[in-house]
Amino acid sequence: MIIPKLHYISQGNSPTAHLENIQKACTSGIELVQLDLNDVPDKKMLKLAQEARDITSHFQTRLIIDDHYKIAKEVKADGVYLAQKDLCPTLIRKQLYPWQMIGATANTLQDCETLLAKEVDYICLGPFMTATSDNNLSPVLGLNGFTAITDILKTNIPIIGIGGI
Length: 165
Description:
7 strands; alpha/beta
């Protein structure tokens, strides 16, 4: 499974703005969109995920749903993205279709090693730079930290820099 190097993580001041920005990203040729909405009730999240699926399907763009693995399965998204606080990827894998991918957050070498053992499809490692929009307490890795971790891991699993990029 090839993971695109550039991902668009949805943003906006409202769920409607998220969908409008997903449309713009797809129109611009992005290959993978992550629907990232917080504090939205499950029923509304399902509706928004279906709308995002409709947009991304039209452009043949992959759709990843942040955190909501049941919704990702229901709308047949291409996968789910898990934060460190979410359930174990190994347990979630059993709930998804075999073709759906799992991405997850890591901040340290140990996080990466743990996720690799749990057979995620890709890792988002960060923060790469200071992320002003996130109350992230993890230390900034920078190019040197990111390179040091990826050099030690020597894995074929894609490791993507996130945070402040």
